[in-house]
Amino acid sequence: MNLFDLKGKVAVVTGGNGGIGLGMAQGIASLGARIVIAGRNKDKASVALKTLHDAGAEAVFVVADVTKKADCQALITETHRVYSRLDILVNNAGTSIRKMPQDFTEAEWHQVMDTNLTSAFLCGQAAYPAMVAAGGGKMINIGSMMSLFGAPYTTPYAASKGGIVQMTRALATAWAKDNIQVNAVLPGWIDTDLTRRAREHVPNLHDSVEKRTPHGRWGTPSDMAGIAAFLASSASDFVTGTAIPVDGGFSIGM
Question: Which structural domains are found in the chain, ordered by start?
């Protein structure tokens, strides 16, 4: 028995056109799964698709604004039309706005919460019937170090990522009877467009992360491939409701 064989399986990765999402898509694709990248930026997606295709993966892009219920449903419908099934959903779409809490507008609060948390719920709802029809499935929700820690400039982001962990636990208990495992991944400080903007905003962030992280470096999107492959595969069939840091030890550092 090959616990890490995903041949014939289909995975949807929201925000899979770069950064952590693309790293996870690559990990899942390396086990033989077909990939559907969902997002809004077609140009960025074309680069991601080339990366996947060059590695021998079968992958397509579907335009979707996953903060909208209708788009989430259309994404799953199109996935089923193209590949006739859905087995894996990676809820990776995310954004952040960095301000002190008293300075956020109501619209900014909802923008972050809807992108990071509501989208994961809506995509999960849309994916559920297809996973039941497939005999089970894997849902991987992307949290953050801000699921564990607080910072003065991340109030809605931290709220959304804390919510990801609790939502993951609730869905895991609800859908275990359907053979659907739901887990969260908590990336540490990964070198992405989002964290590059954070380094512009927070003085000395780069050096302080390296100093605290036992591995002594920032993570890269490729560091997310292994955990994605594990949680998407049969190797994790008895793992559900967890929140797993992938952070080079940042969360245990002093």
Answer: 10-246 (3.40.50.720)
